[in-house]
Amino acid sequence: MSKRLLVIAGDFVEDYELMVPFQALTMLGHQVDVVCPNKKAGEQIKTAIHDFEGDQTYTEKPGHKFTLNETFDKIDESTYDALVVPGGRAPEYIRLNERVLEIVRDFNTKNKPIASICHGIQVLVAAGIIKDRTCSCYPACAPDVIINGGTWEDIGFEDALVDGNLVTAAAWPAHPKWLAEFNKLLI
């Protein structure tokens, strides 16, 4: 059964963490609307490619431009079945938007599936929904989870963790498991 999914992104979202879920979930027949605060359908956001090349942290390179297909100010979250929050640098500033946090809280209150990957957890933390929840995320974000009453689980970079309506993962290498677990919640 096809579902209507909302993705909240922003400039310098991680390229794979936006592009791959958008394409895979669309291929499965879901309607996937991607929005960015202060932007309209037809406008573009820039992505960044994060890679693991043996350094102490990931490297960052310019990614692609992604054309938004819905206008942030026009969305009604009650018309969506699930939410996706990709990582990259976008979460560090979109979490400052109170409307973004309201949307996340609404999905959580209604127990609708929420998929977060990598730094996307920063948005969930800012929305105050990870207390007493077990999550995964990029390890550099683990202190944010712990300080805010959640439990961070180190599941590596290729696995996903499900806690109720939340599906979380550390980074894009987890896409196969992360998206499979998220899709199970959509069925």
Portion in helices: 25-40%
User: How many domains, as an integer?
Assistant: 1
Distance between the termini: 7 Å
Lateral strand order in the biggest sheet: 3-1-6-7-11-10
Given the C-alpha coordinates, what overall shape results?
globular
Radius of gyration: 15 Å
CATH superfamily: Class I glutamine amidotransferase (GATase) domain
Q: Uncertain segments of ≥5 residues (pLDDT<50)?
A: none
SS strand fraction? 25-35%
Look up the CATH topology: Rossmann fold
Helix/strand order = EEHEEEEHHEHEHEEEH
Strands, total number: 11
Structural class: alpha/beta
Mind summarizing the main beta sheet?
6 strands, mixed
Name of the CATH architecture: 3-Layer(aba) Sandwich
Number of helices: 6
Q: If you average the pLDDT, what whole number results?
A: 97
CATH class: Alpha Beta
Features:
single chain, Rossmann fold, 187 residues, 6-stranded mixed sheet
Q: How would you characterize the overall build of this protein?
A:
With 187 residues, the protein is an alpha/beta fold. The protein has a single domain, classed as Class I glutamine amidotransferase (GATase) domain (Rossmann fold). Helices cover 29% and strands 26% of the residues. It is built from 6 helices and 11 strands. The longest helix is centred in the first third of the chain and has 13 residues, at 15-27. It is globular and about 40 Å long. The relative contact order is 0.17.
Question: Short description, anyone?
Answer:
The chain is α/β, with parallel strands linked by helices and 187 residues long.
Secondary structure: elements and pairs:
Elements: E1 4-8, E2 13-14, H1 15-27, E3 31-35, E4 44-51, E5 59-67, E6 82-85, H2 90-94, H3 98-109, E7 114-117, H4 121-126, E8 134-135, H5 142-147, E9 151-152, E10 160-163, E11 166-169, H6 175-186
Parallel strand pairs: 1-3, 1-6, 2-4, 6-7, 7-11, 8-9
Antiparallel strand pairs: 4-5, 10-11
